[in-house]
Design a protein that fits this description.
Order of helices and strands: HEEHHH
Structural class: mainly alpha
Strand order of the largest sheet: 1-2
Bound molecules: zinc ion
Strand content: under 5%
Radius of gyration: 18 Å
Distance between the termini: 23 Å
Largest sheet: 2 strands, antiparallel
Helix content: 55-70%
Number of helices: 4
């Protein structure tokens, strides 16, 4: 992979990370206990009131937030992993067969960790 492509992909990853982090901030707050670990967010539990319908609404909003949060946390983990791989030089290598992943695929989905062939073979995984 040439330097320009590499740089482009890194930029994409960092931009994606920002978007995902923004999203996480709207549904939750960072877990103080594990503030070292920037992948860990807790969904905020809303407080509408103490009436039964208010409590029901709180639970429903909270479970929506949890679902979004889990999705976003998965994204941010993938992004951080890709950034780490860029750092240690293992980025763009298929984790299954060890062959380089198609650059065009990486440009579209920079967090890809397997090549198209393996992806097809292992359909459903990752
Ligand atoms: Zn592969």
């Amino acid at each position: 992979m040439d330097k320009k492509t590499f740089k482009e992909i890194k930029k994409k990853l960092l931009e994606q990370k920002k978007v995902v982090e923004k999203g996480l901030e709207t549904v939750g707050k960072k877990d103080d206990a594990t503030s070292q670990d920037d992948e860990n967010f807790n969904s905020r539990f809303p407080d509408y009131g103490d009436k039964e319908d208010e409590n029901a609404a709180e639970v429903s909003v909270y479970s929506d937030r949890l679902a979004i949060e889990q999705e976003l946390e998965k994204d941010i983990k993938d992004i951080n992993k890709a950034l780490k791989n860029i750092k240690d030089g293992s980025y763009g290598i298929c984790k299954h067969c060890g062959k380089p992943i198609d650059e065009r695929r990486l440009m579209i989905r920079p967090t890809s960790s397997s090549c198209v062939e393996c992806k097809k073979r292992l359909k459903g995984e990752n």
